Amino acid sequence: MFFFNFPNNPVGYTVSESEAGKITDIIKNRAEKGDKIVVIVDDAYFGLVYEDGIYKESLFSNLADLHENVLAVKVDGPTKESYVWGLRVGFITYGIKNGNQKIYSALEAKSGGIVRGSVSMCSNLSQSLIVDAIKSSDYDEDKREKYDILKKRYEIVKEIFGSHKEYSEYFEALPFNSGYFMCVKLKNLDAEKVRKILLDNYSTGVIAIENLLRVTFSAIPSDKISKIFENIYNACKEA
After folding, report:
1. What pLDDT digit, counting tens, does each position of 100-137 carry?
2. N or C terminus of the chain with fewer C-beta within 10 Å?
3. Residues paired with 16 in a beta bridge
């Protein structure tokens, strides 16, 4: 089984156009050799890319009709794509070459069973709100406005790492080009210890993941972003 989850919450990375083609070729090659492959594509950040040359379509479009041995599963929702944190509405779409009613009915039944056995049912209020929002004549304009805000914050983070070379003594940015988050990789430091120092001494909250700190730049006002990384730098010096 291949599992792709880009962009994802921790890293904020979307594959490039060339990488998308290479991924598709690798999967097709293995499928032609007889491998049974399930590819799960998490498209929660669809459309939230900030650089040229990044693949702007879903990998699902490449995979849904790629080969009979490839089951493509598209998992997405409006939570981040439509800037509705908290509504928690999700969608699952299946695609397989030469798929028929029997196959899709079985997948639908299995999916329904999992939903009923876990979350029981989705929030009708959340579903209704997002449907009405999508139908609104202002929907595209509102999304563009929020996209521009996030892109500006993204560009500020990029500029910070380009101009503050001293930060590289303690941490470096993992590649990121989209979404809501980015990660810094610490150098010979305990991420959990740094996280606690940030919280206790600098009133700054981040998520520690092994030797990484996840920074939610999307939720930070533009004029405060530089202070966040200054705080991380000072906390690293204390650690």
Report:
1. 999 999 999 999 898 888 887 778 899 899 999 999 99
2. N
3. 54
Q: How far is CA 154 from the centre of its chain?
A: 14
Q: What is the phi/psi pair of residue 119, to 5°?
A: -90, -5
Alpha carbons within 13 A on the beta-carbon side of 96: 20
Q: Is 175 exposed, middle or buried (0-12, 13-18, 19+ CB in 10 A)?
A: exposed
The token pair that represents 238 in the structure block: 């204390």
DSSP state of 174: P
Strands 70-76 and 37-42: parallel
Alpha carbon distance 89, 84 (integer Å): 9
The two domains 2-76+89-122 and 139-238 share their CATH topology (first three levels equal): no
Tell me which of 3.40.50.2300, 3.40.640.10, 3.40.50.2030, 3.90.650.10 is the CATH number of domain 2-76+89-122. Answer: 3.40.640.10
